[in-house]
Design goal:
The chain has 150 residues and is mainly beta. It is built from 2 helices and 7 strands; from the N terminus they run ββββαβαββ. Helices cover 11% and strands 44% of the residues. A hairpin with a 2-residue loop joins strand 6 and strand 7. The longest helix is centred in the middle third of the chain and has 11 residues. The protein is elongated, with a radius of gyration of 20 Å. Pfam families: DUF6046.
Length: 150
């Protein structure tokens, strides 16, 4: 699917959010953001004691952690009619997703390539207004939907 910005230019790595109860209602970030993934593995490291032949630790019980997802960019109206104006509609849409207290669906080729379909927004370290441009950083964790057995 080709997603275009307000100028009609195809985005190379569009990013979109949707709420699980309305998955077809995707909001695409209006200006293409930068997406970064980070991965942490959990490893139990047991020190070797009283060994004159070995040093260090024995690594065991490897398990995968979540992916950290960082999305950073700006929101400003880039449509020809309002170029450079404050984009109230998209700022309010971003705020709506940031205030949502459940995991969101994330649409992005990078996250899809790593098997990530949901993001749990953990923190928003930057919401900064400069003139009519809102700069943001959104940080979250990859999430999965689990069916718990009773």
């Amino acid at each position: 699917m080709e997603i275009k910005n307000a100028l009609g230019i195809p985005m190379r790595l569009p990013v979109g959010f949707a709420k699980p109860e309305t998955p077809a209602d995707i909001w695409w970030f209006p200006v293409e953001p930068l997406v970064t993934l980070a991965k942490q593995k959990f490893i139990v490291a047991t020190p070797l004691a009283n060994s004159k032949y070995y040093r260090g630790t024995v690594k065991e019980l490897f398990s995968d952690g979540d992916y950290g997802i960082t999305i950073e960019g700006s929101i400003i109206d880039i449509s020809p009619a309002n170029y450079g104006e404050k984009d109230e509609r998209n700022i309010n849409k971003l705020k709506d997703f940031l205030d949502y207290n459940r995991s969101l669906l994330i649409y992005c080729d990078l996250t899809t390539d790593f098997g990530i379909s949901h993001i749990a927004i953990q923190q928003i370290p930057r919401l900064q207004m400069q003139g009519n441009r809102l700069d943001y950083i959104v940080q979250g964790l990859s999430d999965q939907i689990f069916e718990l057995l009773n």
